[in-house]
Each structure stands twice: as C-alpha cells, then as structure tokens.
Design a protein that fits this description.
- Chains A, B, C, D: This is L-threonine aldolase.
- Chains A, B, C, D: Keywords: Pyridoxal phosphate.
- The structure is a homotetramer.
- The first copy, chain A, has two domains: about 240 residues, Type I PLP-dependent aspartate aminotransferase-like (Major domain) (Aspartate Aminotransferase, domain 2), CATH 3.40.640; about 90 residues, Aspartate Aminotransferase, domain 1 (Alpha-Beta Complex).
- Helices cover about 40% and strands about 15% of the residues of chain A.
- Chain A is built from 14 helices and eleven strands.
- In chain A, the strands form two sheets. Chain A has a seven-stranded mixed beta sheet with strand order 1-7-6-5-4-2-3, sandwiched between helices. In chain A, strands 8-9-11-10 form a four-stranded antiparallel beta sheet.
- In chain A, helix 7 links the parallel strand 4 and strand 5.
- The longest helix of chain A has 21 residues.
- In chain A, about 60% of the residues are buried.
- Chains in contact: A-B, A-C, A-D, B-C, B-D, C-D.
- At the C-D interface, helix 1, helix 3, helix 5 and helix 10 of C face helix 1, helix 3, helix 5 and helix 10 of D.
Chain lengths: ~350, ~350, ~350, ~350
C-alpha cells in the first residue's frame, strides 16, 4: 500500500533490461552515443517535430530550471500557479538557474485560468524599468493537485502568452499521465497548443532518473547545451540516459505505464467514493488524488503500514472523527489488491 | 583499442547487478533509502571519519561545484592548477554555483607546488575590499595530466592553505587511481592531510554515474543539502545512486578496478617506452598517459579504429615524421590484447 | 504643483553647501574620509547603538538589496508585503543580490500584520529541503501606500520573526517621515523593536543621492563591505556621500524636512477632504496620499500642469464623472500656494 | 603632495557650479531629465555616433560590469590583461554582473598584444561545451600601469576580436587622459577602432562620481537599462549625474583637466628622471607613473606628508639604499609646487 509518490516506485523491468543491454563495451560520452541519435529521431517523430532539439537530464528540477533559464532573462518574471513545483518544491532552483528571475503566482488554484493569467500579465504592465519584465508562462500538466489540462486549455493559456509575446513552458513531469487522461497526442498537447519548451518526465513513470527537455524551436539549442553543462547536468556515460528513454518510448511502454497508474488511481477513487463521509479536494483526473476521511481511518491505515502524505491534519489528536486529508499517488506498479485493501481499511 | 576516456567504458557487472537488486518495490526517495544509510556507515568507516557528512550526486562537475560553493563565498577566489578540471572543463560551473567566485590559477604545471600556492595566496594580499578575497584551495588527484600527488604532497599544500585559514577541496574524480598508485589510505589522502571536502569519483571507475561528496566537518552539511537541491542534483529515486556506490565499495571493488586501470596504463607505457622516438610529456603515474610519436604512427592507429585524443597536432599534415601527442586513458575494462595491438601499431 | 514623487524635488541648500565645503583638496577615498568617521559617531549616537556598522550607498535599491543579501542565503525566501518596493519596483535587484532568493508575499495589504506574517512563515514549514528556507522579514516604513507602522507594530512583527529565528530588515526610504509621524525615536523604531538592518533613506528627503545601511549587529559588517564593493556601490569620492548625510543629521535637518513634507501632505489631505466626492484609498499618515475624484477634476489639474501619478484610471474616457485615483507625494520643498491651488482645481 | 590616486582629488569648481544650477525645483527622475536629453545629444555629436545609447552610472566598476554583462553570456569568458581593473580591483563584480562568466588573462603585461590575444582566444578553442565560450575582449586605456594604447593599437586588438566575432569593451576610466596623450578623437579611439561599448570615465578626472556607458550599437540598450536598474545603479535624482557630465564636456573642460593631469605627471617624471638612481618601471604616458628610488628617499617623503602607494617594498627595513617602487597619480588639480617639492625630497 505505497501511495506516497510515483517517484518511490520501481523501474520497469524493460528499462532495466535496456540498461543492461546498453552496457556493452565503449560508447561515445556526453550525448554523442548512438542510442541518443536513435532517441532523437524517435522523439521528433513522436512529436511530429522534425526540427525539435532534444536533451536528457536526470531530474525534473533540472529539466524545468534549464528550460526556464533558456526561455527567460534574469530581469523577467515567470508566470505560474501558486502550487507549481517550480515555486514550491525546487528550493529556488528556477531563481538560481535564471540568474535571479522572479516567479509571479497566477490566481489561487492549481490550474491557471486564461483570465487570471491575463490579469497577472497586465499587472506587470506599467512600471517600465522598475518592475520585473514579463517572462515565460510555465504550466504544469498533470497539475500538482492531480487535475489535468486538456490540450485546448493549454492552448487557451498559450494564446494569452503569445498575445504578449511570451514563451510557454510545460512542466510535464507527469506528461504521459496527462496524455492518456485526455487522449491528446504529444503534438496536440505541446507545440500545436503553443508550447515552446517541454519538460518530458520519465522518472515518475517507471524510469530510474531521466527527463527530456524538448525545445520545439531549436534556435536556443546551443545555449541550452551550455546551460546544461554549466549546471553540471551533462552526463559522461550518457548512453544510460538514452537507453532508458528509448525503452520508455518503445512499443508505447510510457503510455502503458501511465494508463496503469491512472487506472490504479481511478480504482482507488471509485472505492473511496463509495464510502460515506469521504470527500475529494480536487477532481482526480490522472494518477493522484486528495481525499478526506476520519482520523480513525487514517490511524488504521497507518498501523497497517500504508504510505501516503497527510496533506492536512495530523494523526495525533483527540477527535477520531475529525477529517484529515490524504494525498495518494499511484505509479505504474500499483496493484489492485493493495488498493482494495487500502479502501477496506478506510471503511473500517 | 578505446583509450579516449575512462568515462566511455562500461559499468562493472557487479554494479549492474546491484542496480537490479535495488529495483525491488518501493523505497524512500531523496536519500532516505536504506541503502544510503548503509553506505553512510561504510563510507565513514572507510575514511575513519565517524562525523563526516556524505552525499551522492551524478556528475563530477556537480560534486566539485557544490563542494566549492559550500566552502566559499561569492567574493572569494579559488586557488587551483591552470589545468584543473574546474577551470578548463566545467563551462563555468564553479563560477555559477559559487555565485560568481573567481578562480586563481597557481603556477604553470598540473601539480601545484607549495611555493607557488603560497605566492598566489600572497599575491591576493593587499587590496582590501577591492580584490577578491582568498577562498578555498582545490587540488586534483589524479591530476589532469596523469600524475599523482602523494598524501604528503597533499599535506604540504593543505598546510599552506591552513596557514591562511583557507579550506581545502580535493577533486578526486580518479581518487581510487591515486590511492592505488600511492598506497595511501583514504584517510591519509584526505582529512589526515588537511582536506576538508572530497569529490569522491565513481563514474570514471566503473559506475554508471555517481560521485560522492564527503564533508569531513559536517558543520555545513545542511547548507550542502540545500545547495544540492537548488542545483537540481537531488535524485528522487536515490536508491539507484546508493546501490551503485555500495557495490563499488563492497569487497574493495573500487580499488580492484582502479588497480586494473592503472596496470593497463602501465602496460601501455612500458610498451611505448620500448619504441624508439616515443616520448612522454608527463610522468604517467596512474591510468592516463601523454605520449608523442610520429604522424605516420597515429595514422595507422586511426585507420585501425583506435580511439584517443590527439592532444597536440593534427592527423592531417604533410610530414609523416612530425611528432603528435596523444592522450590515452585506461579504464578498468581495458584488456591486454588491445594494448599490445595498439603498441604494435605505433611501432609500425 | 509637483506631487509626482519626493525623489524629483530639489536638494536642500544646506546639503548643497555641505558638498561645496567638502570639496577642499584631497580626501581619503572609499569611506576612509574624515567626514565618514564623524558621521559614524553621530549615527551611532543618534541610534543609541555604539556597535552599529554604518555604510553609505547612493540608491535605495542598493541599500535594500545589499542589506537583504547580507541577512539571507540564496536558498531562502524573504517575507514582505505584496506592494513592497523590493518586490514591485526594483527589477529583481533583491533576487540578483541575494543570488536567487525568493520573495514571499505576506497577506494582501500594504501593511503586514503579525497573523499574516506568522501564517506565511508557517506555510513554508513542511517541505524540508524541497521548499525555500525561511529568510529575513522585510518591513517598509512609511509603507508604499503612505501608511505608517508604529514602533510597537514593528515590534510585533519582529517578535514573530524572532520566534522563528529570522532576521528583520526595515526599508526606511522614508524613515524620517515615519519617525515624525509616530514620534518614535530612531532606536525605538529599529533595534529596540527587533530590527537587525535598516535602510536609512536620504534621497527622498532632500539629499542628492545617499542612503545609509545600518547593521545593528556588526558581525556581518565585513561581508557587507565586500558585497557593496562587488555590487559596484563603493564610491571612490566617498566624502561627498558622507558630507550629504552629515548635513542631513546636523541640527535635525532631516526631521525638519520630514515634518515639512508630512505637513504639506496633511494640508493637501485636509483640503481635499472638504470637497464632496473625494475619497481616500489609504489613511494618509505621512507624506503620501491616494485620493479619488472625477475625471473632470483630473483634467483641470493636468491642463494646469499639475504633476502626479494616476494610480487607477486614465485621463482619456468619456465619462467626466468617473472616479480616478491619484497618488500624490509631498517633499520637503512643497509649498502651501501650490497645494491650495491644487485643491481649488479639484474643486472646479 | 597628494599622488595617491586621481580619485582622491577635488571636483572641478565648474562642476560644482553646474550641480548648484541643476538644483532648481523639480525635475523628472531616472534619466528623463532635460539635462540628460541635452547630454545625449552632445555625447553623440562628440563621438560622431548618432545612434549610440548613452547611460550614466556613478562608479567605474558599475560601468564596466554592466557593459560586460550586456556584451556577454554567463557561460563565456572575458579576455583581459592580467592587471586589468576588472580582474584585480572590482572584488568579482564582473563575475557577479555577468552571472558567473570567467576572466581569461591575456599575456603577462599591462598592455595586451594582438598575438597574445589571438593565442588566448585560440586556447579556448577545442573543448566544445566543456570549456567556457569565448566572450568579450576588454581593453583598459590608460592602462593600470600608466601606459597608453594608440587608436591603432586598439584597432589591432579589436581586429583580432572581430575575426572571432567577439565584442570589444574599452574601460576608459581615464579615457580623457588617453585621448590627450595620443591626439586621437573620441571616435577614432572607440567605434572607428572597433570598440562596441565604452566605459567613459569622469570620476577620476574632476567629477564627483559619474561615468558614462556608451553602447555604439543600440541593439542592447533596453537590456542595459534593465541590468542597470537590477544592479541598483539607476539614480532617481538623475539630473545631478547629467549636470556633472554636461559640465565636463562643456568647452572641453574634460580634455583641459586631462591635459593638466598628464602635464603634471610629465613634470614629475622629468624631475625624477634627472635624479641619479631613479628608474621607471613602465613608460609613463599619461597621468600615472611607477618609479623606484631608495628607502631613505621614501622615508623623507613620508615624513613630509607626501601621499602615494608603495607598489613594491615596505618603508620599514634596515637598508636605506634598497630600492622601493612608488605609484604616483596626478589629477587635474596637481600643482607645480607640490611636484617640485616632491622631487626635491626624493633627491634628498
């Protein structure tokens, strides 16, 4: 019953096999390996983007920070949701990599709305040289609350950004989960909707530690490469990043794993919804859900070894009926037995 | 015949096996995994340093830059050799991570000498607030030219640094090769000699991509952790870093691999030394050598598919007798047949 | 009728005279001038702070950014009002000088309240290494909306900061105006209330371009000096900064000018309050006021050459009765005739 | 007998008068003042550069750092002399403002030579993404050793830079002294020779604290403005910078002051050259000289209150005949009596 995070699950066996297969003799370092050449071709085809520049790094924070640094200037501000990973969970990495750009928080929900984005952009209007300049818009899909933007919603936000000439970054740490949730194609969810740079997540979806950055306009590709090296994110034994990502794409493994994770979450949600007194804080649309039930229920789970984050409230407390909110995340390896057992424990 | 770099060789099978073994179900992320706890204990024992703070990152540049950032202030200068990796091969990563500290180049050889170090430190003396302030001394062992400092030589440099109250960093991307070359113990080569922070390399010596940073004084451990996260170098699936490094240390695999690499280089050097007209630019003391022979010899090697860097000169050129210098690096997997064939091709 | 800003008014004649007097032969550069020695003594006496470290720079943004950089680490966040000058009007200078720290906006008004501050600090609680760490609290007095904190209010905010071990910075670009508005002494408004570093403004109150930074705890004085030099804010002909600030303090000129500015603003407010349909957006407590009246009134003022910022609304528009908000700032040189004429023009 | 630095001398009375004249009522802040408009016209005419972007800051370090930050990227290296002010005397300000660019020291003398510059640029050739990228070439004229580049020499260096597509910065903290020493026009010494950005000094030559930055290609003008504001170098009461610089240019006051300073230095050099045993370390070509004479001579000067820097050696020491080197700088206000008295004291 492990629902703490999709980053604590195992690597898919096919990915492990690909790593072993890649470990054969010598290979050119630093991204000049044959596997990377193959990956570049596949990625471009997958995204219907024959010109796209494609790079691999090992952490999502690196992908986001390097992408934003490449899209922005240090005297600008990045527009994002108040719960964006880049704002809340990266210990100022975006500020570091951009050389001190600011993050402007848009609206008050996990999903940005076009009106709120426009208002935030407009609010940075009138100070000339005194205020920060308008910079990239960064959207997270799947959001940090488990909801999902459709490609059309991404497009509506990007349209606002484009009106002001601002580039658009998509933090797709759970990009696969968003795609299978919406049915959009990779191209529809990105450049066709107006996205300029994508953090294409792998680590939360069955890889060991690889994320791609895709620059749909390759004009700043060389700058990105320099920033990646300067950030110490260029791997010498790069073939082991390439191998993971190639295995990820092969035969649609990435979508298969995302489907499994989303389905596991759906099963969990269905089970919990049938219980009286369980309520959801956000509409669970991918592989993450936030639900509240009584302290007594949480205690039963805790004692049975279930793992998840208590998002609001504490296990300690006198009132067994007080509602505490849990965050649960399913990865590709979640199994039905665990889920059903979890739901049964909540039921009591 | 692959002598381009020890970072282009394969991962040791025992390390691959450890990765597979680590891929079992869920594990706590971000360094809270059980394997990391075990590694911490082993490392502290190995270094006879029960208080040391130990962290893992995936690239040598990350290890160096984060260590230096933790040891320095942005208005300081780092003292290093003019051919130090931190100066020549990290695309300004140390400047980036330190927030704009300077690098002061000491002397004109790959090995710093105590006199030259003292002179460089003294030269930063008299400008008060105007000049950069004196910061850490960074030593590379094995050096970038394949020579090795003894523990006593490290101690002599550190003694100069300590006179001025400066911390000492050791870039040990090839630390294992230096140890087996000198017979020093890990403690003798580091904190007993006055080293405050060590970049403990693994990637060039049979790992997939892991380096440890060891802070012998843990006072700045938390700062290091924050800098690592801010630099986007904290891995969620950290167990796969831990597993590699544990396998590395188990039964002395790390020293065994370094011995193999050094021995392979020694065989190569012996073979080349017997050839008339071959001269060495630096005394090869570990797993790297720089030697010169005729363009004709290089052409034969090139046509036979041998891989190494031409350090001085170009294959193109009219004079077949002109001397061109090669850099050759052996990793743990180098084999005698390749070496002997290489030597035979130089002989012609 | 110049009410655009207190930074567009003239320098007080006594300050000009002091500059001329200082221009006599040679003087030691970089703050080693005799005038600076005298100023240090006077400032320490004025603030009842014999240990305080005192530095001069030429802009308020420099004072704020250098003070915050000295009090913080790059992986921290600074707590401030959403309308703080450091957030809205310094083009990311605090982010630049701190090396990429974040600014966390507290509450939704120009004055921070202890409860909102506590909530903001608590909200940065639980993410360990992932979120930014808690850093300095920065308070602006006079606020950017013309309201004033009493010394007790500063003390209440600082008490919250101290509970969490956080340092406190006071942006006193209009410090003199706040003092004369509240009757507090310099010490009461600062270190006695828990302030660790003060930006002591002069430029908006009759100087040519000088601000002091006062570090009540001198432990980081040398670090501040290095950051000032590195920021290019150390003046070679420093005596001309010292001379201005000395003249400012002499015979209470600084308080006299602040009293004149506050009194001018009070006269303006009194006049406008008597007019039907004029409303104030914030309680004008120092030398700045925000008031709304009809577009027709604004047009009359504009045609008569009055200068001030339209804070909300535009002169263009069809409805002459629509309410538009003006921001008016009085400096020491504002005169009664202009004020009365201004009020008469609003009246129509 | 004040020869410590041209930054410790007085402001020219005409400049003081201009400041007083500028202090009349209200003026638009932040560079929108009428005086700045007039200055822009005059500067463009003076430099025969009708498109040039012209900005004022208050320190030479700010001018240099902002100009270099605008011309470079953080992953580049700036080529300069090993004794350049940007390297030795700015406490890492260029590294700070550029976001961590490196400085590559060219050759071993205070004047860069085209061959040494080419060699240094070539040396950064072959490392691809690993080494720093080639960035701006920064030339100092007058050099930090009192020697002067002719316009042709500047042109020869710039020609090398242009071959590699690198921009050229001229640190002209003593630009006026270089012009009067060589007879070149402002345009000949700058853009006609290939200079892209000029730090046009005023502070060392009779101003209170003003330097201009001239971008001959205005393409990056807006970026410069944002960097200036972000660096906290935009003055609200900007008219007092404008007024100084306007007075500086009026009727050639700036060249008149430089001529006086150079002439004073020449008189000093002539006097010292006639003394037996006095030798010059560099050819004094502007307003600065380095000369050696006996410790006994230095002691006499010291006791008589003469002020200058001992560049090599210490007053303390047993041997009265030991040669110690002095650095002497003359400003516009140096007088013949002091100089002659100084020479007489050296003679003994």
């Amino acid at each position: 019953m492990h629902f703490a995070s999709d980053n604590s699950g195992p690597v898919h066996p096919k990915v492990m096999a690909a790593l072993t297969a890649a470990n054969d003799g010598y290979a050119m370092p630093y991204g000049a390996d044959d596997l990377m050449n193959a990956l570049r071709r596949q990625m471009r085809e997958l995204f219907e983007a024959p010109e796209a520049a494609i790079y691999l790094v090992a952490t999502g924070t690196a992908a986001n920070s390097l992408a934003l640094a490449t899209l922005s200037q240090p005297f600008e501000t990045v527009f994002c949701s108040p719960v964006a990973h880049i704002h809340e969970d990266e210990c100022n990495a975006p500020e570091f990599y951009t050389g001190g750009a600011k993050l402007t928080l848009v609206g008050d929900s996990e999903k940005m709305l076009p009106g709120a984005l426009r208002a935030a952009i407009e609010a940075e209007e009138s100070r000339g040289v005194h205020g920060p300049q308008r910079g990239p818009v960064s959207i997270t899909n799947v959001t940090e609350r488990g909801t999902v933007y459709t490609a059309a919603e991404i497009g509506a936000l990007a349209a606002v950004a484009k009106e002001y000439g601002l580039p658009v970054h998509l933090d797709g740490a759970r990009f696969a989960n968003a795609l299978v949730a919406t049915g959009a194609s990779p191209a529809e969810m990105t450049w066709k909707a107006g996205v300029d740079a994508l953090s294409f997540g792998g680590t939360k979806n069955g890889l060991m530690g690889v994320e791609a950055v895709i620059l749909f306009d390759p004009a700043k590709a060389w700058e990105f490469e320099l920033r990646r090296k300067r950030g110490a994110h260029l791997f010498s034994k790069h073939r082991f990043l390439s191998a993971q990502m190639l295995a990820y794409l092969e035969d649609g493994l990435w979508l298969e794993m995302a489907r499994a994770a989303n389905a596991a979450n759906a099963r969990l949600v269905r089970g919990l919804r049938q219980l009286p007194g369980v309520s959801f804080a956000h509409e669970p649309q991918a592989n993450m859900s936030f639900a509240g039930w009584s302290r007594a229920g949480h205690r039963r789970l805790h004692e049975a070894g279930a793992q998840y984050y208590l998002w609001a409230g504490h296990l300690e407390g006198n009132d067994p009926d007080e509602m505490l909110t849990a965050r649960m995340v399913c990865d590709w390896s979640a199994n039905d037995e665990d889920i059903d057992r979890f739901v049964a424990l909540v039921r009591g």
